[in-house]
Structure formats: C-alpha cells, structure tokens
Design goal:
The chain has 428 residues and is mostly helical. 79% of the residues lie in helices and 0% in strands. The protein has 2 domains: 1-206, MFS general substrate transporter like domains (Growth Hormone, Chain: A); 214-428, MFS general substrate transporter like domains (Growth Hormone, Chain: A, Up-down Bundle), CATH 1.20.1250.20. It binds D-galacturonic acid. Residues 115-116, 140, 143, 238, 241, 338, 341, 345, 365, 368 line the site of D-galacturonic acid.
Length: 428
C-alpha cells in the first residue's frame, strides 16, 4: 500500500461512513413502518414494543460492545458487529409477525451499539489531543447524515420493489462497508500507509499517561468521579436527541397540524443543523485553547456550556406563534445539542486511557440512552394532559445542570493544566 498523507482523516472518514450505514439501517424501520405495519397486521402498540426492543438492546449493549473493542481491537471488533447488524437488518425482510420483528430489532440494537464507542476509540487512537474534538464530531455527524438519507432511499426501495427490499439494501450497504473496513483499516502502530511523520505527530500530541495499555475494569471506571462527570451530563443531554428523533414529527403533525408533505419537506432540517453542531464543538474548544491558553478540559467545558446556553432556544418552541419559528427553534436545538453532545462524548478520550475508551464511551452512552428512555416514557404518559411545552422547557434547562456537573465533577490532572497554560502554542 502506498503512503497516504493525512491518513488519520481518511480513517475517521471511513468511520463516519460506518456510522452512516449504522444509522441508515436503524432508520429503515421508521420509514417503512406505515407499509409494513399494514402488510404484517401490526398494531401501533405492538410497533412500540418493537421500537422498545431496539432501545433496550442498544442501551444495555453499549458498554459490552465497547469492552469487546477494547479487548479484541477495533479492526476485527468493529467488523464483527457491523456484519451482525447488517445481516440482522437484512433478516427483517423475513419477519412475519411483530414478535419476530421485535427479536430481530433487539438483537440488532445490541450490535448497532458499537458505533459510538468504536468512533471514540478510533479518535483516541488516531488523533493528537488538539484534533480529537473535530475528529469526534466528524464521525458523530454520520448519525444525522444516515437519518437524513434513510427516507429517500427507503421510499425509493418500497416504491420500486417492496419494504423487504429496503431492509435488504440498507443491510447490504453495511456489508459493503465492512469489506472496505477490513481492507483499509489497521491500527496506527502498523498501518502500512501511515507516514513516519504522521505517526510521530499522533503520538507526540497525545497525553503520555493515557497511552498505557491496562485492560478496562468496570469497577474501577465506575468509581471515578471523572466518569460520572461525563456520564451525568450525557444522561441529562440525550433526552433532547430522543425528542428530536422520535417526537418532533408527531408534534408537528398533532400540534402544528402539518401534513405529511410539510413534514417531509422540513423534518430533516434539524438533522442538518445537528451535523453543523457536531463539526463546530471541537474547533470552538481548539480556538479557545489557542486564544486564551486555557487547558483542553476547560476549553471543552466552555464549548459544552455554549451549547447549553443555546439549548435555551428550544425551550421556547411551544411559545412560538408560527410553526416555522417553532421549526427554526428546533433546528437551533439540533445544532446546540450535537455541539455539546459531541464535546462531552469526546471527553472520554481526553480523560481515559486509549485501552479503556471503548468501555467508558459505552457506559456513558448507556447513561445517555437511559435518560432518553425515561424522558420519552414521560412524554408518552403525560403529553395528552400537559402538552409538549413543559417538555421543551425542561430540555432547555437540563443541559445547564449538565454544564454545572461538568464544571464541578470533572477533575483534570494538575500537570496537564499547567502544561497547557505554560505552552499555549502546544495546543494547536
Ligand atoms: O446525543 C446524541 C448523540 O450525540 C448521538 O449522535 C449518538 O450518540 C446517539 O446517541 C447514538 O448512540 O447513536
């Protein structure tokens, strides 16, 4: 293989592609739902159990997937899980009832839970500290791209073939990605296309104490206050993601009386905004580091806080007179959420060893998804009596609490903070 300059950006691009296929696969069901519910005679309540099976599997499995990646390595680990979620997606086409669909969905959720821990682990292994924010944002942007691509692709497959074909295609894309991954991916220690210069740039830009290779220990991770310092803000932040993903179309239809055509025309916009949010968080932190000389951790905390302040905008969604203003506020919410979410997700690689980043990111993800689940159940239980407004207001405030926790719970090593303050130039 010839040497490739800036290889790390190609690698994170490949991981982003993997995240896109991961989100495409999981989003297929929602788009195909109207057709397949009718054909398989599945009720709305049974459909909610199918969705629940995915959420439960995904929530529980994130640390398990992260741990497997930490132990057997990214190349084989990510490939195994990608094959599993792709084959399970394709198998959806064989389901004949809601029960078999729910089983497939639960298992698929477990395999899909690899995406974020794998992305974080790649970021930790391949990037110097100063670039991790942007790298983390780039692969995480794949989530929204996948969610945006699903509707046109799935509708096209259903119109030209049938709903089964939609699952076959999105699953097959995951397999194609796996072949690419197995062909192109190697760790930075042995990638034949990595130049010596770039390898030095990567290792010299990483914190020495994070490069050691102890195996992850669950007990030890859960005892650290830095873990809770990132996991609790995720618990408080992720309800926004769940709300934008699962509830906003329903809100637009039932409260703003939008028809399907209007929803199709506008509902992807918050995800586009979310993509920008993903990409902005890292560079904002780097900019602050460069201009003020503050430590990396403080710069991340500032970026998160900015996102949290911006998240006040969606608190006003329910008060907007026009549906279009409400939509604009939802978009600000998508942007702000991913700006702060990417930032806190990336902090797993700022605070934990490369050999345990997968497990830590997975555990924090479990907290995030638990927050999503609780919030979603609360909306489901209360929306018919109190409406959506209190929930939007709540979303606006939760991240401010998250910011306070991030500032108070996370402790950075004194020597790192001092080094950053003494040599601000080293930060970029
Ligand atoms: O809050 C949302 C996150 O940033 C989102 O992009 C992913 O982490 C998502 O939760 C997932 O696990 O697929």
């Amino acid at each position: 293989m010839p040497k490739i300059r800036h290889l790390r950006w190609w690698i994170i691009g490949l991981v982003c592609l993997g995240t896109i296929t991961n989100y495409l696969a999981r989003s297929t069901l929602g788009v195909a739902a109207p057709t397949l519910l009718k054909e398989l005679d599945i009720s709305t309540q049974q459909y909610s159990w199918i969705l629940g099976a995915f959420q439960a599997g995904y929530t529980i499995a994130q640390p398990i997937c992260g741990y497997v990646l930490d132990v057997i390595g990214l190349k084989i680990g990510f490939a195994l899980f990608a094959v599993a979620w792709s084959v399970l997606t394709m198998a959806h086409g064989l389901a004949g009832s809601w029960v078999s669909m729910a089983w497939l969905r639960g298992l698929m959720g477990m395999a899909e839970a690899t995406a974020i821990p794998a992305g974080m682990k790649t970021t930790a292994e391949w990037f110097p500290a100063k670039e991790r924010g942007l790298a983390g944002g780039l692969f995480n942007a794949g989530t929204s791209v996948g969610a945006m691509l699903a509707p046109p692709l799935v509708v096209w497959a259903i119109l030209n073939y049938n709903w089964q074909a939609a699952f076959l295609i999105t699953g097959a894309l995951g397999l194609v990605w796996t072949v690419l991954w197995l062909w192109f991916y190697q760790g930075p220690d042995k990638h034949p296309a990595l130049t010596d210069e770039e390898r030095t740039l990567i290792t010299s830009g990483q914190e020495t104490h994070l490069q050691t290779g102890a195996k992850p220990s669950l007990k030890q991770i859960l005892r650290q206050r830095n873990f809770w310092g990132i996991a609790l803000p995720r618990f408080l932040a992720d309800p926004a993601w769940g709300t934008f993903t699962f509830w906003v179309p329903l809100y637009l239809a039932s409260v703003r009386h939008w028809d399907l055509k209007q929803i199709a025309m506008f509902a992807w916009l918050p995800f586009l905004a979310a993509d920008f949010g993903c990409i902005v968080g890292g560079p904002v932190a780097s900019f602050l580091q460069r201009t003020t000389g503050m430590s990396l951790i403080n710069a991340r905390r500032c970026a998160f806080t900015m996102g949290a302040v911006l998240m006040l905008a969606p608190a006003f969604i329910g008060f907007a007179d026009s549906a279009y203003t409400a939509m604009a506020l939802i978009c600000v919410g998508g942007f702000a959420h991913q700006m702060l979410s990417t930032t806190v997700i990336t902090m797993a690689s700022d605070l934990f060893r490369r050999s345990e980043v997968g497990t830590v990111a997975g555990l924090a993800g479990t907290c995030g998804w638990t927050g999503q689940l609780i919030f979603s159940l609360m909306i489901g239980a209360l929306v018919s009596t109190i409406g959506y407004n209190p929930f939007f207001v709540c979303l606006g405030l939760l991240d401010l609490v998250g910011a306070v926790l991030l500032w108070t719970l996370v402790r950075e090593r004194k020597e790192d903070a001092a080094a950053a303050a003494a040599t601000p130039q080293a930060a970029h």
